[in-house]
Amino acid sequence: MPEDSIEHIDFDDLNDRAISQPLVNHIYTADPSAHYFNGKIYIYPSHDIDAGVPFDDLGSHFAMEDYHVISMDSITSEAVDNGVALHVQDVPWAEKQMWAPDAAHKNGKYYLFFPARNYEGRFQIGVAVGDSPTGPFSPQPKAIEGSYSIDPAVFEDEDGSYYMYFGGIWGGQLQKYRNNSYAETNELPIPEETALLPIVAKMTDDLLQFVETPKAVQILDADGNLFLEKDNDKRFFEAAWLHKYNGKYYFSYSTGDTHYICYAIGDNPYGPFTYRGRILNPVIGWTSHHSICEVEGKWYLFYHDSSLSKGVTHLRSVKVAEITYRSDGSIETLEPYRK
Ligand code: FUB
Predict the structure, then answer these.
(1) pTM metric for this prediction
(2) How many distinct structural domains can be found in the chain?
(3) Which end of the chain is more exposed for a tag (fewer CB within 10 A), N or C?
(4) Which pLDDT does position 244 carry in this prediction?
């Protein structure tokens, strides 16, 4: 929701109608990637700040500098801020804009995956490694080779393989790439052309690199066709996430400029995925970003909105709400504020 349409919102009333409240309110947090590691919930969010950078369509005002990990003993417990887990000043290749991260756990090590702008102004994705799920994390000296754009989400499959999904348009620069190559002249497709697609790559055993050339992830409509750019209430924009439910792979994402969290279902981690609907209707704030995590047999959507900051686009707060699967595997759409 654009900031100019929020002037008349009664935020006290909105907060009363919200289906959930911010998990923490002493700092702003966004883009939550939630995981259940060793019987506890860990949330890896962006740490929103007001850095005084003017608003633009490329998201320069999202000028985040560090990451804090939030932990919860259970879904109803207090959310604990574990302090700074990684700072941009400690990442040799990254200049600024520590955007939506994710994390993974393997063989007793914890891996924080994060996008940032490098010194040439391009987003890339880095990895930092730690011994604890809350950090601190030590960054690798260089970004992942062949990585680009934003919003990494790392999925661990049941066979022990890990896959990274990534990509985001506008500020996330995905429109500048075709077949993994950058060109300044590349732009968004025109409305009648096929929409841009998210990207996936399998990770190496040490989770520090891609094992293969990244591939496009196909999201198809019910007739088996790719969405067009004009289908912007269904096509991919940013915020990829993958989870597995009842043996099926669910790829979920934000439609960006239409503000929906949607999902598509497939039979393997590479897709294709067939569009099935919306998980979350628009929240207060322009962006919508989420993750889906199973905790003790129930499934939860971690998401954010800008209710605490009274609608400031780049000052968001992480929330959580339970999601419900129907018997056919579809997900009931959540309305973030009761009518
Ligand atoms: O937090 C910065 C950017 O906003 C994220 O990378 C996008 O997904 C959007 O939420």
Answers:
(1) 0.97
(2) 1
(3) C
(4) 98
